[in-house]
Write a structure and sequence with these properties.
heterodimer, A: mainly beta, Immunoglobulin-like, 22-stranded antiparallel beta barrel, five-stranded mixed sheet, 54 strands, 47% strand, B: mainly alpha, Serine Threonine Protein Phosphatase 5, Tetratricopeptide repeat, three-stranded antiparallel sheet, two-stranded antiparallel ribbon, globular
């Protein structure tokens, strides 16, 4: 073993050894008494496989097929603990009895559930941190491609939105706001104890100058949501600090389904449905367009050689409609599970297929999942959890871009609606006035890519109990993501014709490898109870990429399947390989006194290869206190209060940069020089390295109250959170005169604070009729406290939007920065106060400095992309065999830049189609509106793009999902134990004032500033399905 | 079995942390270590080529051209996304936030300076011949000086970075420091550069390029004698010629390269993504199909035709004589897709077709963008000589008449251009006609002293066309990040 390692681990080693010595000394010997008993359900059915354990002692056993057990105890007054999956754990005091019958009741949504936390689990009642726990049954019903969709609106403090309707498209998941400016803002996902590498294997690209989609498909599409048993979301520092450097954005722990004791159970769930575009933006029809464009030419007395009039045949082509379709969505999942006293298994296979509502897009997933567990309680536990998935994605030309680099939808929205789609010979019609845009159909059919992803993640773990109170556990895992994406630009498109076919194949591999060792210790000493874990982990991340492209194909039939047939002299190739390592030491102690006062303290030390020699290690401690008030005498007998617990926590959590090697000065391939007419390679500095780069650190305070009243019929949680991020990782703009654009530095700080409130109630609880309701709301206030001496940084948007965002101390992240439109210059106005050259019908801007020029100094902050609050509520009603689930979600106060408005107010080209509402109600001398300008080209004030007109309020309330299911009455039989059918609808309606494609859309890569930029439209889905259990 | 587990597990826990020799050291497999780049001949040469590549901003050249012409009597723009920036250039309402100043001029030139500095400060440690050391160093010094001359032209004196280790906060040099630096660096390096045609690859700097940079820099700073001398040094190389091609063939892709004795320095373009000249896509009028004025131009639908319109001002085009052969590259009438003939001679709507290329692919044409042409050197010497004399000297007539002859225009004579003033006017008119779409109009009008007055004469409000506008503002990003860098007056 290496010397350095010994030095680093020395103190922890001695701690482990002390623990070991302690246990070896604790030998046991006493007289034995034999106890017999039976475990049954409320209905009197015997429960096979329940664990019966003597409290505070070593003995335990399992119940047999008939529910009976025999157990030796030392003490006639011992207490037995009886545990059975899905049932509330009971404690039985023997009081001298030699035989007992224990009736278990199903576990409800009570504080007695076991909740998974980092590197362990605790009873929900013993939680000291802010942890939300969702069981599979409580996820939003419907056909979901990934688990984030099913979590939307379900958990206080967690804001989830799907960024577009693209099948399998990117999700934005933010827990308690935004932590980092340029670091990562997504939570850490941990599946069955193994952190998963959430990076995409093949990143976004726009080969050959096609539209670029900064939103990659969600890497977690590889996890089948129907394999999920529960999801725990760790929100406060006490809960997340055990994940140290990856905990700042919260942690999502996903537990997949395990087998349970009993005979083989076979489940089949299937669904089939149809999707359609939920909202289409209304552009002018050919008739409206002809009238509006010719009207403007006439009103403006425009030179028709530059502004040709609309003449000729009018085909009234609805270009958007030509790209849309009704599409199917379906899923089929089969699982086999079961087990006996020592072994449990769950194996499943699933298929999910979703065609996109736009042509040539879709996703298909085939996955297999295996969970095996061999265990003898308090002796050993060995298991494997493995999922392997194949995903086939189809992508059309979706993304952000301008003109010929725009998406198919961009062209459809902008294309001349009087033009026909096809020529008489069947070829695509191209309007010369629409150049350089191509026919939208040519683009959607001829610029596409396919992706194939093979991902396998899983881990094996082995735990050995030296004594029931002390165990050691080793986990070894890997997450291998191997993907290939192939692009094709067909010669039938304008771009493809210029290349005579263009193919680009990108191969990417992401590897993640984990070795983890932990020691667990659980002991009670009278009123004191200790639960401790200590361990070390080694994690390695690798990535490889290979890109090859070819063009000019003699015969283009084989597309990207034969890139060797392109013109060899024009081939391009590049590759890259990177790695990162994380070494961590962790420890946590939960201490409970009298089951009333709980203390949790944790510490994680993370060493990352992403930092220079001086700053590799970061230390992330946390502490939490909790007071179970219900256990106090003054509440013990208050019937109405079922439970009451106060929590407070404080801790530090970290964030590392997304990028490797930032501290290293190196050289990489530069721009090619051209000599003798040929390209010649060059080498230039890779980056402005920062050897002082260190951990971004967040300190979070959380004060919370968990309550439950009236026999747990009303329960809930309220939290106040305040997270201050220090040493923000930020790409500080360098003076460009240094030759570098930016350097990643640690500067400044920001705060996210707010309240979370979640309430669940059982409104009606009768034999035949049950009604539950849940509601949650989260407020969010984000404030940049400092940017390390920088006054403000203005950011640039996609396409030709230009400056659109601002970072400024005192303001919120995601702030838009632009101009204020006060109205429209009217004929009678005093033009001596107007900017020179302004005409009646031009937009009237707020001239802040009164210098009669509308320039950069007249810009103001136009609001933030972050909501003031977001919320969700859901209802579950059941009447006899019929049940209904309804869930709503909403957000209030977020702003969004609507690029459709930008393109219509500030058109790139006069002859392009525009939003109907604006052009049909435009300013004319006869319609002196203050709402819309005259749209006559030549406004000397220029393109202001980002204004209070184009940045809109994106508050909304959405009926996210409704499901009605019916449990089929089954005659007594040996084969089918349960069968139900359901119909469901997703995204049924949205209440909003937002005029763009969808108030939850975001077509840009950043989840900080939101831009609705030709967003792939959201869908409305109706499905029907069947669940059968054999 | 159990016993084995008992020992294996704790060991495995410990093994976890001792996985490798230096646990947190990683190798950037796909990046070069500085030691290998900065001490080897191929490494330092690759860094020198990066300095060249940064300066060869093919795709940005359209903005560099329009920035220098749309604010003059020559050119105009409408429509498209680019108009969002260019409308400010046209109306003299530009400010420090205008993206083109930073993206097309400031940043690429300073990246060239960064890499040139890297070459200069490491060249002595490179394992190569002394001849190579001298050559690479001379190329790097002249490249750097050229970038500074370009920056000086746009912004006036700028922060003078001469090493890669200077702090980010760096004040602007004084005007004198700036001028001395540029002149000295070139003068000291010329001897180590090869004669034109003798460079290792066409496009790398030679004596002709170095003298041309110097000649134009002195001309723009009105150091007439030094400019005239530097022009003479170019002429005395006896390499360049204005009589090789007809004017309309000077810019043809097939006439590019070492054989073209008109071109001293160009931005070498290729019809490929990132290396193309995009000007023609903006110059094409709406629905363009063909023009009888240039029948050899065979427009294809795969050639981009931008929404933005790069236009010439009618009044400017009207100053050109009908017989001026340079009119062959100006489109005033075309046939559109509907087969109709469209007259674009009026309404500030003629188009410069200097960069037409039948092999254009999408946006990308292969036409090189001239930076220094021999015609520019001849006209510069003529201008300098005129400024140095009481009346225009005979040599000045000889020089300008070489250019006029190629354009098919009659000679200027003492009779029709008798004095310094009329000769100066003639030079500037000639330069306008000769260098359309070559990005020289702004500096010419500034030298002539008419940059502001001609804008006001065109109708730009005097409140906008202020005298401070002869310099563009330092990009706002630099002002914000470099605390010692002060903005130009008036911004």
């Amino acid at each position: 073993m290496n010397q350095t390692v010994i030095r680093q681990t020395g103190s922890r080693l001695s701690f482990l050894l002390t623990l070991l010595a302690f246990f070896i000394c604790s030998a046991l010997s006493a007289q034995q008494i034999s106890i017999t008993g039976k475990i049954t359900s409320e209905a009197g059915e015997p429960l096979h496989g329940a664990t019966i354990r003597v409290k505070d002692a070593n003995q335990n056993t399992l119940s047999g097929d008939d529910g009976t057990f025999t157990l030796q105890v030392d003490n006639a007054n011992a207490t037995l603990e009886v545990e059975y999956v899905g049932y509330a754990t009971r404690q039985i005091e023997l009081n001298g009895r030699r035989a007992v019958t224990v009736v278990l009741t199903p576990a409800g949504k009570s504080l007695s559930e076991v909740v998974v936390i980092g590197y362990g689990s605790v009873k929900k009642s013993d939680l000291t941190g802010s942890v939300a726990s969702i069981k599979a049954d409580d996820l939003t019903k419907g056909t979901n491609v990934n688990m984030q969709q099913a979590l939307q609106g379900r958990v206080a403090g967690v804001q989830i939105y799907q960024k577009s309707g693209e099948p399998g498209g990117a999700m934005s998941v933010q827990i308690r706001g935004i932590t980092s400016i340029t670091g990562n803002n997504a939570p850490l996902y941990v599946i069955d104890g193994m952190p998963v590498n959430d990076a995409v294997a093949v990143g976004s690209a726009s080969p050959g100058g096609t539209t670029s989609n900064p939103n990659n498909r969600n890497p977690l599409n590889t996890l089948n949501p129907s394999d999920i048993a529960s999801i725990e979301i760790l929100k406060d520092a006490s809960a997340t600090a055990i994940y140290g450097s990856r905990g700042a954005n919260g942690v999502v722990l996903i537990t997949t389904k395990k087998g349970s004791v009993g005979r083989l159970t076979v489940d089949y769930n299937g669904s089939y449905g149809r999707q359609q575009v939920s909202h289409t933006q209304r552009y002018m029809t050919g008739d409206e367009y002809t009238t509006a464009i010719n009207g403007i030419i006439h009103d403006g007395n425009l030179n028709t050689s530059n502004y040709p009039e609309v003449t000729g045949d009018n085909y009234n082509t609805d270009w958007q409609d030509l790209l849309f379709r009704k599409a199917t969505i379906q899923s089929h999942d089969v699982s086999f599970s079961g087990g006996n006293a020592t072994s449990k298994y769950y194996v499943s296979a699933g298929y999910f297929g979703q065609d996109g509502v736009m042509l040539n897009s879709g996703t298909k997933r085939y996955n297999v999942n295996v969970n095996l567990e061999l265990s003898v309680p308090y002796k050993y536990n060995v298991g494997v959890s493995l999922a392997t998935t194949y995903i086939k994605d189809a992508y059309n030309a979706t993304g952000t871009g301008l003109n010929d680099n725009g998406s198919a939808l961009y062209m459809a929205q902008n294309y001349d609606p009087t033009a026909p789609a096809y020529n008489e010979d069947g070829s695509y019609y191209r309007s010369p006035l629409m150049a350089p845009m191509d026919n939208p159909l040519a683009v959607i059919n001829g610029q596409y890519s396919t992706g194939e992803t093979y991902r396998t993640f899983g881990n094996i773990h082995a735990e050995y109990f030296f004594v029931p109170t002390l165990s050691a556990k080793v986990r070894v895992g890997a997450d291998i993501n191997d993907a290939q994406r192939s692009f094709w630009i067909d010669p039938s498109t304008l771009t493809g014709a210029s290349y005579n076919g263009y193919a680009d194949v990108r191969d990417g591999k992401r590897g993640y490898y984990l070795i983890e060792g932990t020691v667990n210790y659980n002991e009670s000493f009278g009123k004191h109870k200790i639960n401790a874990v200590a361990g070390a982990t080694y994690e390695r991340y690798t990535s490889n990429s290979l890109v090859a492209n070819a063009r000019s194909f003699a015969l283009a039939d084989l597309t990207y399947y034969a890139i060797g047939t392109g013109d060899q002299t024009l081939n391009g190739v590049s590759n890259g390989k990177q790695e990162n390592i994380l070494i961590s030491y962790l420890g946590r102690v939960n201490y409970s006194f009298m089951d009333r006062y709980l203390l949790t303290a944790s510490l994680r030390a993370d060493g990352s290869a992403r930092f220079g020699p001086e700053n590799k290690y970061g230390y992330f401690p946390s502490a939490a206190l909790s007071w179970k008030m219900k256990q106090e005498n003054f509440l013990k007998n208050v019937e109405a209060v079922s439970d009451l617990k106060l929590r407070a926590s404080y801790g530090a959590i970290g964030n590392q940069p997304n990028v490797n090697y930032l501290y290293l000065s190196t050289y990489s391939a530069g721009r090619d020089a051209v000599f003798n007419g040929d390209r010649v390679t060059s080498i230039s500095p890779t980056r402005s390295a920062n050897v002082f780069l260190q951990w971004e650190s967040a300190r979070q305070t959380d004060i919370g109250l968990d309550f439950s009243f009236f026999g747990s019929r009303l329960s809930g949680t309220a939290d106040y959170y305040n997270r201050k991020t220090f040493n923000l990782l930020y790409d500080i703009p360098l003076p460009l005169s240094s030759g570098f654009g930016a350097q990643t530095q640690n500067v400044g700080s920001m705060r996210n604070s707010g309240f979370e409130f979640a309430l669940n109630g059982t409104i009606v609880d009768q034999k035949d009729f049950k009604l539950d309701a849940g509601f949650n709301i989260t407020t969010l206030k984000n404030k940049i406290l400092s940017l390390g001496g920088i006054d403000q940084v203005i950011g640039s948007g996609p396409g030709s939007i230009g400056d659109y965002s601002i970072l400024k101390p005192g303001e919120s992240m995601g702030s838009f920065y632009g101009y204020v439109v006060k109205g429209v210059w009217q004929t009678g106005d005093d033009f001596s106060k107007a900017p020179a050259g302004v005409r009646p019908g031009d937009l009237k801007y707020l001239d802040l400095d009164g210098n009669q020029v509308i320039d950069a100094s007249d810009r103001v902050i136009l609001g933030s992309s972050l909501p003031d609050y977001y919320y969700g509520f859901n209802l579950n009603a059941s009447y006899k065999a019929l049940s209904l689930n309804v869930s709503f979600e909403g957000s209030h106060g977020a702003k969004m830049l609507n690029s459709a408005l930008v393109d219509s107010y500030y058109p790139v080209d006069f002859r392009r189609n525009k939003l109907a509402a604006l052009y049909l109600n435009r300013w004319t001398p006869d319609n002196p509106t203050n709402e819309y300008p005259s749209f006559i080209p030549g406004d000397v004030q220029g393109l202001k793009n980002v204004t209070n007109k184009t940045v809109e309020d994106a508050s909304y309330l959405r009926l996210q999902a409704v499901q009605l299911s019916y449990q089929l009455p089954l005659p007594e039989n040996k084969f089918v134990s349960h069968a139900s059918v359901f119909v469901s609808g997703q995204n049924l309606f949205t209440i909003t004032n937002y005029s763009g494609s969808d108030p939850a859309a975001n077509a840009v890569g950043s989840n900080i500033n939101r831009v609705d930029y030709n967003t792939y439209p959201m869908t409305r889905t109706f499905t029907a399905g069947l669940n059968v259990q054999f | 079995m159990k016993n084995i587990i008992k020992y294996i597990l704790p060991l495995a826990v410990l093994a976890t942390v001792s996985a490798c020799e230096k646990p947190l050291d990683v190798t950037p497999y796909s990046e070069f270590a500085p030691g290998n780049v900065l001490t080897t001949e191929s490494g330092i040469k690759s860094l020198l080529f990066s300095a060249y590549a940064q300066q060869q901003t093919q795709q940005n050249s359209r903005f560099v051209i329009n920035d220098a012409e749309d604010c003059t009597d020559m050119a105009f723009n409408s429509g498209g996304a680019e108009n969002g920036q260019l409308v400010q250039i046209i109306n003299f309402t530009w400010d420090a936030n205008l993206g083109t100043f930073q993206g097309d001029v400031w940043a690429p030139n300073y990246r060239c300076i960064r890499d040139a500095n890297g070459v200069i400060e490491n060249i002595d440690n490179v394992n190569t011949s002394d001849a190579n050391k001298k050559l690479f160093k001379a190329e790097a010094r002249v490249l750097r000086a050229y970038s500074y001359a370009t920056l000086y032209n746009f912004f006036g004196p700028v922060p003078l970075r001469t090493t890669t280790t200077q702090p980010g906060d760096l004040a602007r040099a004084t005007d004198e420091e700036m001028r001395n630096f540029i002149a000295t660096e070139i003068t000291e390096s010329v001897a180590d550069l090869p004669d034109p045609g003798k460079e290792q690859a066409h496009g790398r700097f030679n004596k002709g390029v170095a003298y041309a940079i110097l000649a134009k820099f002195y001309l723009n700073t009105k150091e007439w004698q030094k400019s005239a001398d530097a022009c003479k040094s170019v002429m005395d190389l006896n390499y360049y010629s204005t009589t090789q091609y007809a004017f309309k063939d000077l810019f043809r892709v097939e006439n590019e390269g070492q054989t073209n004795k008109e071109m001293i320095l160009v931005l070498p373009c290729k019809n490929e993504v990132d290396f193309g000249n995009w000007f023609m896509a903006g110059a094409l009028p709406p629905g363009f199909k063909s023009t009888p004025q240039l029948p050899e131009f065979n427009y294809q639908s795969t050639m981009s035709n931008f929404a933005t319109q790069y236009r010439l001002r009618t009044a400017f085009v009207n100053t050109m004589a009908q017989e001026d052969k340079r009119r062959q590259l100006i489109c005033t009438s075309y046939i559109n897709n509907a087969g109709a003939t469209v007259d674009i001679s009026g309404g500030d709507n003629p188009r410069s077709f200097k960069y037409w290329d039948n092999a254009t692919i999408g946006n990308n044409s292969g036409n090189d963008v001239p930076i220094y042409r021999y015609a520019d050197i001849l006209l510069s010497r003529a201008e300098a000589l005129n400024e140095l004399s009481a009346t225009p000297p005979a040599e000045a007539f000889t020089l300008i008449n070489q250019i006029r002859a190629r354009a098919g225009l009659p000679d200027l004579t003492q009779a029709n251009t008798p004095d310094k003033k009329s000769f100066r006017d003639a030079i500037f008119r000639e330069r306008g006609w000769e260098f359309i779409t070559e990005g020289k109009r702004r500096e010419d009008l500034i030298r002539q002293g008419t940059f502001i007055s001609s804008a006001i004469a065109r109708g730009v409000p005097a409140a906008q066309a202020t005298p401070d506008k002869v310099l563009f503002p330092i990009p706002q990003s630099e002002i914000q990040a470099n605390k010692l860098c002060e903005q130009n007056a008036g911004y």
